[in-house]
Specification:
The protein is mainly β. The chain contains no helices and 5 strands. Strands 3-4-5 form a 3-stranded antiparallel beta sheet, with no helix packed on it. The protein has a two-stranded antiparallel ribbon with strand order 1-2.
């Protein structure tokens, strides 16, 4: 079982829990985005599991 984390669905504004099955850390200073199914909107989002940030976040998905 992977490590659970939270991210905010950009469509509903709800916090969603997901599990990261890959425990390999991201390279220093870089984000590692993975696709997760959203339980709130039933869509898919690109999320960095180590931070919970979405690629579509206002910072443009640039790192942490």
């Amino acid at each position: 079982m992977g490590r659970p984390f939270l991210f905010c669905c950009p469509l509903t504004g709800l916090n969603v829990q997901a599990r990261n099955e890959d425990d390999e850390p991201a390279p220093a200073g870089r984000a590692r985005y993975k696709m997760f199914e959203c339980l709130a909107c039933r869509g898919f989002h690109l999320v960095d599991p180590s931070t919970g940030k979405l690629m579509s976040d206002p910072d443009g998905g640039k790192g942490r």
